[in-house]
Design a protein that fits this description.
Blueprint: E1 7-9, E2 12-14, E3 18-22, E4 32-33, E5 38-44, E6 56-62, E7 72-74, E8 80-85, E9 91-100, E10 103-106, E11 111-114, E12 117-122, E13 132-140, E14 158-163, E15 171-178, E16 181-188, E17 192-200, E18 216-224
Parallel strand pairs: 4-11
Antiparallel strand pairs: 1-2, 3-5, 5-8, 6-7, 6-9, 9-10, 9-11, 12-13, 13-16, 14-17, 15-16, 17-18
């Protein structure tokens, strides 16, 4: 997402000498996956006062300005300067911070580093309808490690269960995810084969200009058993013929 930044250094407005972007897109930085290397282009702009830059320092910061990476040095600056990152956890909003010739500037593009997927584990894959089915959920990085900075409530998520015709089925649930892991229960109110979908489309909302927008999702198939047999019959316990049954009159 582009954030226009003009720096005030002393009493002089300084527009900046660099534009940071993806190597295959000179206007955007798309969302990245945790624990997956990505490359950015720190592009030197043709602006007045920028031609004498030979060396820079750069690092990746979160939205509060805290450094995520150690400061690195880059010498022999060219027009296009590719730099690699591999961030092992997730962040909702990060940017590149650059220092040179006693000046500082931040990339106008901010972006998210997200988990790659959810993994959902049900206690039963063939539960009965209207009964609680307990489950666990994990938010995993590209290397399948847990992203411990990921937390959310169900209100942050889109949770649906679809039958084979992609028709939403009635469900109820209770759970939360903290430090990349969560547990709770779900109640399936309709019987039949279904696919449970849990999706987070909000974590990377800083990158609304991505196409398509980044979503974190997980799915699991489930075959919900009916509480009533398909023929509608209800089985009663068998009574031994020698059992004495005492009936009493009841006065209404």
């Amino acid at each position: 997402m582009r954030l226009i930044v003009v720096l005030l250094i002393g009493s002089v407005l300084f527009a900046g000498c660099f534009k940071v972007h993806d190597t295959d897109n000179d206007e955007n930085i798309t969302s990245k996956y945790a624990s997956k290397q990505f490359t950015l282009d720190i592009e030197l702009l043709n602006s007045n006062g920028c031609s004498n830059i030979q060396n820079i320092s750069y690092d990746l910061c979160d939205v509060n300005g805290s450094k995520i990476t150690h400061t690195r040095q880059l010498s022999n600056i060219q027009q296009h300067n590719n730099v690699d990152f591999n961030i092992t956890d997730c962040y909702r909003n990060v940017f590149v911070h650059i220092t040179y010739n006693n000046h500082e500037e931040n990339s106008t593009q901010h972006f998210a580093i997200t988990p790659k997927r959810f993994v959902i584990q049900l206690s039963k894959t063939n539960p009965y309808q209207y009964q609680k089915t307990y489950f666990t959920i994990k938010a995993l990085a590209d290397d399948d490690t847990v992203t411990t900075r990921y937390s959310c409530q169900p209100t942050d998520l889109n949770i649906t269960s679809l039958n084979s015709n992609n028709i939403p089925q009635d469900i109820a649930y209770s759970f939360a995810i903290s430090q990349g892991e969560g547990a709770g229960y779900i109640i399936f109110k309709q019987a039949g084969s279904q696919t449970l979908h849990i999706t987070d489309a909000n974590f990377a909302k800083i990158d609304t200009d991505d196409n398509p927008p980044r979503e974190i999702s997980g799915v699991v198939d489930v075959d919900v058993q009916s509480m009533i047999p398909e023929d509608g019959s209800i089985s009663l316990p068998r009574i031994h013929p020698n059992t004495n049954l005492n009936f009493h009159k009841v006065r209404w």
